[in-house]
Amino acid sequence: MSATTHASNELPDNPLRQLTLDQLRQRTSEKWRRYDPDVLPLWVAEMDVLLAEPIAKAVTDAIAAGDTGYPSGTGYADAVAAFAAERWHWADLDRDRIRTVPDIMLGVVEMFKTVTGPGDAIVVNSPVYPPFHLFPVFNDRTVVEAPLGADQRIDFAALAAAFELALGRGGRAAYLLCHPHNPTGTVHTRSELERVARLAADYGVRVVADEAHAPLVAPGTRFVPYLTVAGGERGLALTSAAKAWNLPGLRGAVAIAGTEAVADLARMPEKMSISISHLGSIAHAAAFREGGPWLDALLAGLDANRRFLAELLAERLPEVRYRPEPGTYLAWLDCRGLGLGDDPAAAFLERGRVALNSGLPFGTGGAGHVRLNYATSPEILTEAVDRMAASL
Ligand SMILES: Cc1ncc(COP(=O)(O)O)c(C=O)c1O
Q1: CB pairs under 8 A, 24+ apart, for 84-93?
Q2: Which residue of 86, 128, 304, 378 has the lowest C-beta tally within 10 Å?
Q3: What separation in Å is there between the alpha carbon of 138 and the centre of ligand 1?
């Protein structure tokens, strides 16, 4: 498939092809408003899609009925459990192990509070989603990095060293696993996850798995929830419909306990569970319950975009190194061959008028890299790569 023939080969119902640039520029969300109107934004993890029809209906029905009170019931938990059983072969996920939280990162913090104390360390695999560096610190924890290997996968020697360092001062420690990994899109395998669990058990480190991007794993790649692997029973996990169905504006997430971590999850204050937005939980439940066909169309579109981006880069920016991974819609681009210094995103923005995430806030391994969000149309993707190339 060549870069030029891609457009005509798309599925007709590709959610990434329903909006024009003019329509997208009307949006008032962060992606479209942070930069000047001449800048093409492919940065923050918002997608250029319309809402899946069942989600739009659930939310507009609730609005029409004035159903905007406090959240109630187990609709979100039920929908996650059913989706997990169908898509991830997770048959024994008891709804009692699932609690709603206002969003993923607030849920992550609550999980830290249940398994660590102030001053304790949180281990992260840099380069990683910048809030993984920030939220522990905002909450009186320190961060210890275990950088990914050159293959973008967990480096177990680095992880063991980080566990050692994290426990060095005698406190407790947790490992915040990003699964799939943002920004690389790496999907950890069952054997890697089992190795994580063994290492965590050896050191007495608790695992908190952020599975925000889990529904976005490409067809043909198996997503294995951390809590389902041998040794994962003591883990805690978070997931949400926000990334896969583009719902960051309708906030919500769930925290899930491994079979031996139910008491830990139970320590989370009730106030946290009921602080989820009622409309958010309606939207997220509809996504997990009825959003499957839309998700499948999206995943096909993302798969095509992933291959298309690799082609575009090979043709127009051959010095950029990109290792496509099946995990999500984020591409981690090694731009060190371009001679743009530690922060190539700054040059692409200033000279190319294209907004990408700078790699620097992702921690060790981020210098000279950018993160590009390809959850957009092939036309916008083409224009973005053209602008990057023109800025050199
Ligand atoms: C790994 C990861 N966790 C959490 C979030 C944010 O989720 P929330 O907005 O629900 O806190 C994101 C958003 O991009 C993410 O990539």
Answers
A1: 84/225, 86/292, 87/215, 87/223, 87/292, 88/214, 88/223, 88/224, 88/225, 88/228, 90/225, 90/228, 93/256
A2: 86
A3: 16
